[in-house]
Give the backbone structure.
Amino acid sequence: MTIEQVINKFRQTHPLTDTQIIEKTYLFVKEAHHNQIRLNGEPRLEHLLQTAYTLAELKLDTASLVAGLLHDILEYTPIKLTQIEKQFGNEIAFLVEGITYIDKIRYHKRDKAAKDQVENIRKILLAMAKDIRVILIKLADRLHNMKTLDALPKEKQKRIALETLEIYAPLAYRLGIGELKGQLEDLAFPYVYPKEYQEIVDQVKDRYSQNKRYIEKITPSVKKTLTKKGIRVIEIHSRTKHYYSLYKKLLRYDMDWHRIYDLVALRIIVPDIENCYAALGIIHKNWRPLIGRIKDYIAIPKHNGYQSIHTTVFCQEGKITEFQIRTPQMHQKAEHGIAAHWHYTEKRGLKDYIRQAIFREKSEKKSHQLIEELTWVKQLQEWQKEQFSSPDEFINSLKIDFLKDRIFVFTPNGDVIDLPEGATPIDFAYEIHSDVGDQCTGAKIDGKMTTLSEQLKNGQVIEIITQKNKKPSRDWLKFVKTSQAKSRIKNYYKKN
Ligand code: MN
């Protein structure tokens, strides 16, 4: 990667912006990081350029690219923040400081020694709330780190991949950057669930190419059918489902491949909303739709702002095919999320808005359009307005929504334990320690005795009561949720 490639990418969306500062920053980091080699054998400079390139792809502004190039400067060179401030100004220094700060935060899923978890997630969210670009730069940095993860020691690979899967991919999703979310998940998938990943890869190979060939075959005639009825098709292409999201869907469908209709889907982009519905009508007139598979995310957008119409029909040769219909604006938003807003709205709009939301600064300027479109930012504002009695309470209300299918509960001394939805006190006990699980005789939720099969809820404090020489019960297998608990109980009976 060269700085010219980064600048060319940037110019595609910012043709009139002066890029001198980007070039100057490049020379600055080249000097500062000179001869630094990362574990994968490549110069650190390559990592910085890759990060900046991703930011240019996300259509971010000059300050983001400059901060992207500078993001490792405080950690890997003797250069101090005051120097950055002097040379690049307050805005850049603020971004660089924010990224460095997030880098120090470590997410440990099963490490009960990590007492600062609640505080850490809070820090990430607060850094993000102050200036969303901090997180976007962090996501770009993480993307390249994931691409070069192979070079790191094994235990580190697992930790970083898990953190990517459970914190950064959901963040990208929350910000509506679907493409980045998919990439991050697919890069992390083989490190976190190697066996499951291999199974998916093996099973998907033929299916993908078959599906893809079929979609490519029908595309011209679908286009013709629509055009004949007066629809202007701006673009029609196939999209392939990401591996990790396919895996999650299969889990929901008991690994039944026959119920997956959107391995490869046909995406149709038309000029406006009227044409979206018109196209839907024409498709349904020609091919019979499957009942219950029409999803109107235009009338009712997803939580993260995603809009499209999805429908599944018996298409040519009777093959079940998913169509996704949307406008160019919706497409932009689905790919670039909040970054697309950044590009379309006046630069200061979003930042001011979030600042106002967080610090309730009084300002005349308001970006009504954004307030309406960014439900998520609105939520953040709502959360900030509420008075939380403790950081725990604050973080709970925030992250529940972020990491939707996970719950967070607490040990009596305040450690956070992260479990899948529907988890029980037994899952919790095994998460603490296998012996605690094996010897569990009872549990208290928020100080009250409970049954061992009770489903835990976010924010509860769980206390496990143990008894020496107690054996795990086979009945537990009927309700435990985590694979860790399941395999421990099974192993116990295999051994004994
Ligand atoms: Mn980095």
Observations:
- The pocket of manganese (II) ion is lined by residues 47, 71-72, 141 (CB under 6 Å).
- The first helix runs from residue 3 to 13.
- Residues 34 and 45 are 8 Å apart (CA to CA).
